[in-house]
Write a structure and sequence with these properties.
Blueprint: H1 7-21, H2 26-32, H3 37-49, E1 53-55, E2 59-61, H4 63-78
Protein name: ArnR1-like winged helix-turn-helix domain-containing protein
Domain ArnR1-like winged helix-turn-helix: 7-76
Length: 83
């Protein structure tokens, strides 16, 4: 499938990276997620407003973010798309 990545996929990737790698700078997180910095920051502000991440010097996933990630992973498994 070609074309822009969906918002949900990007949110999933950002949350998964934060869970796996721990707190990261915005720049490193953007690199890991294969997003340009401006686009990553846009998503991070959205995630912060939804209380899924906390942004200080570094970005870290919140408890609510972990719970949301688990729900997304459950749906992906149910659809046969997750590991």
């Amino acid at each position: 499938m070609k074309g822009p990545k969906s918002d949900l996929y990007i949110i999933y990737r950002l949350l998964k990276i934060l869970k796996e790698k721990g707190p990261l700078s915005k720049t490193k997180l953007a690199l890991y997620a294969y997003l340009n910095y401006q686009r990553a920051v846009k998503y991070l502000h959205y995630l912060q407003e939804a209380c899924l991440v906390q942004i200080d010097k570094e970005v870290k996933i919140t408890r609510r973010g972990l719970e949301t990630l688990e729900k997304i992973e459950e749906v992906l498994r149910d659809l046969g798309l997750g590991s």
